[in-house]
Amino acid sequence: xxxxxxxxxxxxxxxxxxxxxxxxxxxxxxxxxxxxxxxxxxxxxxxxxxxxxxxxxxxxxxxxxxxxxxxxxxxxxxxxxxxxxxxxxxxxxxxxxxxxxxxxxxxxxxxxxxxxxxxxxxxxxxxxxxxxxxxxxxxxxxxxxxxxxxxxxxxxxxxxxxxxxxxxxxxxxxxxxxxxxxxxxxxxxxxxxxxxxxxxxxxxxxxxxxxxxxxxxxxxxxxxxxxxxxxxxxxxxxxxxxxxxxxxxxxxxxxxxxxxxxxxxxxxx
Length: 269
Fold this sequence. Notes:
This protein is α/β, with parallel strands linked by helices.
């Protein structure tokens, strides 16, 4: 059985592309490295735009990266249903590309914020959140200086009314995002932007939790539902607090355990 191929794009200034590729592998998919200058997507089943500082963010976060050759392919494929996840800078790029509404601006307190952040999962009908339970609380690292989500009131109301706010900050808003929004989805649910970094919460050795794995397990579930002939994302979300009941999430956690066991074996040599 072929493992799903998930592309991870590298821009000049990307710094979390390697972490995102590792998270994809731990979730049970095949990471495919894509370069910002590519004119195709190498037949991937989904794409991740990772965090970092594309082109140094000299003009406006994501404003230059949005015009990279690979983005032309991603924009067209996303409009046709390809699952796309933008993390931090990737979220900014998706907003600049008008694949997601709103914008990410300078943190309200004007300071870079780096901490483990509690989140409450909202909409679970998307390609990247369907393995969560609505209202589930998770802990995911955040690290950004321009992470404040803003949009006009009509857009904010529409996002909330249609279940497209996929995550909200809990236990304190780190950047002043309107309505505590940490992530949003497009109308079809295949494109998601998230300011916190789920790829840094896949291994207890390097992160505060393994909660981030569920985002990557979700897209495998979404792709599996589509391959089975049902509507993508048609499977019901699991109950809050129990992502282990989703096979993809359980497999991902097993992969982390095996990797940790390998490290311990090497350490004893």
